[in-house]
Amino acid sequence: MPVRTFNEREIELLHEVLASGRLSSLAGGTFVPRFEAAFAQAVGARHAVAMNAAMSVLHAAVAAAGAGAGDEVICDPVCVFGAVATMYNNAVPVFVDIDPVTMNMNPDLIEAKITERTKALIVTHVWGLPAEMDRIVAVAHQHGLVVIEDCAHALFATYKGKQVGTWGDIGSFSFQMSKQMALGDGGMGVTDNEGLAKALDLHGGAPTFLSVAHGLHWNYRMTEQTAAIGLVQLERARGYVQELIEIGRLYDAAVRDCAWLTVQRAPYEAQHTYHFWAAVFWGDKQGIPLDDFQRVLREEECSVSIGYTGMPAYKHPLIHHRLGYGRGCPLDCPLYAGNQNHYPDGLCPVAEEVIPRVVLAYTFSPQEHHQRNAEALHRAVTRLSG
Predict the structure, then answer these.
(1) How far apart are the first and last CA of the chain?
(2) What CATH number is attached to the domain comprising 112?
(3) Domain for residue 218, yes or no?
(4) What is the pLDDT of residues 3-14, one digit of tens each?
(5) Domain count of the chain?
(6) How many Å apart are CA 157 and CA 81, to the nearest integer?
(7) How does pLDDT run across 211-226, given as a tens digit for each residue?
(8) Residue 156 resides in a domain
């Protein structure tokens, strides 16, 4: 383990959905509201809104924060999704650099990026390790910003005893097939704020005459079938996550004595839930070329990847080439009064150095594989450490 289990229990609930003839909550289906209530309870939130994807939740969260044309949203530079959700709403992403060990947003650098145009902050719990949410929320709320947590990697991760997704104003969870709880696709937004819950719920339904009063909103609702599977998978998800934590420890042990791999670790009270196990390669600083490391990994049949996307979010073509809705929007929107040269080289120097060096092991596969793989990683680093 972990191996995803789908069995007669899901089939039983899917049969209930089909037998009811109500395949949508708009038609009177009950599984979506049941799933929302169960998920909210599981993560310790007052409200939950189910949607068809986590990107939909992020987009809806940016809209709920009131960010639009000419506005800015602070994002981290490792994962591009917060920036994309910002651009969906015709707002401009502004990037804050990361800590080189945690790979999460550095709270010390946030305040300098806040302007009168800033509406929200999106923080990703990268690879499953919680960011320093107490410090991030304190700075953001001091300036009246809505804090959106991207928890796609971090189901049931905790920081100082509190679950991620509940520190900020809105939490976004992913149920895409690679994630810790996989439903094929789907997402969930959580919040303790009733007003934000209502704003999210506009997008979890369908466009109606409410658009006249509330502006545009989107049809992002989850199907009854997905919610039925979600109810069963939620019962199993804590078991999956516990096994991922155990797998992460295997890799930690494999490189414990390696001076040139820095394991992703928080210097504070945080429970990593290991969507990926991650470390940063610094061997070239000690006379070990990256090519040699990659060669020895192949020889030892160790399946880890190196470099993730190879670039910070603002170097992705969508942003680097200033694409979007056309006619300059959103990045060169005529309503935007900020710095038009948003994304020069060196904008986030730590992210630019760290991302190409990231060593990743995807954890959701049988533990026996990871036992062998961690042993192969240990052999590789031992050979190169001499």
Answers:
(1) 34
(2) 3.40.640.10
(3) yes
(4) 899 999 999 999
(5) 1
(6) 20
(7) 545 577 889 999 999 9
(8) yes
